[in-house]
Design a protein that fits this description.
Layout: H1 3-19, E1 22-26, E2 32-37, E3 54-55, H2 57-81
Antiparallel strand pairs: 1-2, 1-3
Helix pairs in contact: 1-2
């Protein structure tokens, strides 16, 4: 695998996680309900009259950090092989 392909795959992975982020809903009394992944422009709702979901930023940033760490470790592995 080419070193440049690793960064391309990482960029596509971050773009996909940006387009389909994890959502959460804060219910009554501050309870948090984790919802599914959904398209950014069509967030899930909680029932017919429930509140709209918001993006779970903490989980999204954790996913991005994971993608970056995996990308850097794969890049360093390929640099040592070459």
């Amino acid at each position: 695998m080419n070193k440049h392909n690793i960064f391309l795959i990482a960029g596509i992975s971050i773009l996909i996680t940006l387009l389909f982020p994890p959502f959460e809903i804060f219910g009554k009394h501050g309870t948090k309900i984790n919802k599914e992944y959904s398209f950014i422009l069509m967030p899930p709702s909680h029932g017919d009259f429930g509140p709209m979901a918001s993006v779970n930023i903490n989980l999204l940033l954790t996913q991005w950090v994971g993608i970056i760490l995996i990308t850097l470790s794969a890049y360093l592995f390929l640099m040592r092989r070459a």
